[in-house]
TrEMBL record:
GO terms for biological process: cellular response to hypoxia. PROSITE patterns: FE2OG_OXY. It comes from Chitinibacter bivalviorum. Residues 102-199 form the Fe2OG dioxygenase domain. This is 2OG-Fe(II) oxygenase. One of its GO terms (molecular function) is L-ascorbic acid binding. Keywords: Dioxygenase, Iron, Metal-binding, Oxidoreductase, Vitamin C.
Length: 202
């Protein structure tokens, strides 16, 4: 896959899924070389990661009983992330054209879960704030096995659930206000790029 160009078929597949069931999983969205490159970048910046918390502003706190990941936010002008940001800008433009979602920006970060870490069931929209519209997750785990764990468990509208194994290169996209989800523990470190397309606050 060209690092700067997304296939129209993939863009249409994502748009159709969001307009229908509201979620989709795209295996091999990133090729092996890109997964390795981004995984290496995350490790090179290890010292810049900070423990993730829950809550906003004055209510923000680190809670090991709720989530155990550390994160590093991605800047729009980060030269090492040019290709990754360009892919996501292309998807944003497509979703705005096809679904009229009014997506204004992407906020995303590297997320690292050490062995045994988890994130309890939650919804990506904060209370009384609907600016997060679409959730995206790209997995950066070379040679991951299902037995390594770390699945993303998505709770669907009909009461069922689906577990997504974080194989390197897999993309998960879903509507942020519809699907509660959780991250299950893994037996080794689990790395991803996770974020949200946002609309402007009214």
């Amino acid at each position: 896959m060209n690092n700067l160009v997304l296939d129209e078929t993939i863009l249409d597949q994502i748009g159709d899924a969001l307009a229908g069931p509201g979620w989709t999983v795209i295996p091999n969205f990133l090729d092996t070389a890109t997964v390795t490159e981004l995984h290496t970048l995350a490790h090179a910046r290890r010292e810049q990661f900070n423990r993730a918390g829950v809550g906003r502003e004055a209510g923000h706190q680190v809670r090991n009983d709720i989530r155990g990941d550390s994160v590093l936010w991605v800047e729009e002008d980060d030269s090492a992330m040019q290709s990754a940001n360009a892919r996501m800008a292309m998807l944003q433009q497509h979703l705005n054209r096809s679904l009229f979602l009014g997506l204004a920006e992407l906020e995303w970060h590297f997320a690292s879960y050490p062995a045994g870490a988890f994130y309890q069931r939650h919804l990506d929209q904060h209370r009384q704030q609907d600016t997060r519209v679409v959730t995206i997750v790209q997995y950066l785990n070379p040679q991951w096995q299902e037995s390594d764990g770390g699945q993303l468990r998505i709770y669907l509208d009909d009461g069922s659930q689906v577990d997504v194994t974080p194989y390197g290169g897999t993309l998960v996209v879903f509507m942020s206000d519809r699907f509660e989800h959780e991250v299950l523990p893994a037996i080794r470190e689990r790395v991803s790029l996770t974020g949200w397309y946002r609309r402007r606050a009214v």
